């Protein structure tokens, strides 16, 4: 699956994910910790990817999720 992490601003990073398990994990645990959903990508009315806005203090978590999503 595809996972990309990049610097969005001085205070946030952006994370693009196509892995359903990682998306479920973020929705279950990390939306309460400052992650925000920026965009959803759909094909034939099915979500194929999501993009999240992540605060800098959650960067270590985001890197781990990116690594899991790229396996």
Give the helix/strand layout:
Blueprint: E1 3-7, E2 12-17, H1 20-30, E3 36-43, E4 46-55, H2 59-69
Antiparallel strand pairs: 1-2, 2-4, 3-4
What does this structure look like?
The chain has helices at residues 20-30, 59-69, and strands at residues 3-7, 12-17, 36-43, 46-55. The chain has 71 residues and is α+β, with helices and mostly antiparallel strands. The longest helix is centred in the middle third of the chain and has 11 residues, at 20-30. The chain is globular and about 35 Å long.
Order of helices and strands: EEHEEH
Estimate percent helicity: 25-40%
**N-to-C span:** 7 Å
**Portion in beta strands:** 35-45%
Radius of gyration from the alpha-carbon trace, in angstroms: 11 Å
Low-confidence region ranges = none
Shape: globular
- Overall pLDDT level: 93
Structural class call reads alpha+beta
What is the overall number of helices?
Answer: 2
Strand line-up of the largest beta sheet = 1-2-4-3
How would a textbook summarize the main sheet?
A: 4 strands, antiparallel
Structure summary, number of beta strands: 4
In short:
With 71 residues, the protein is an alpha+beta fold. The chain has helices at 20-30, 59-69; strands spanning 3-7, 12-17, 36-43, 46-55.
Name its key features.
single chain; 71 residues; alpha+beta; 4-stranded antiparallel sheet; 2 helices; 4 strands; 31% helix
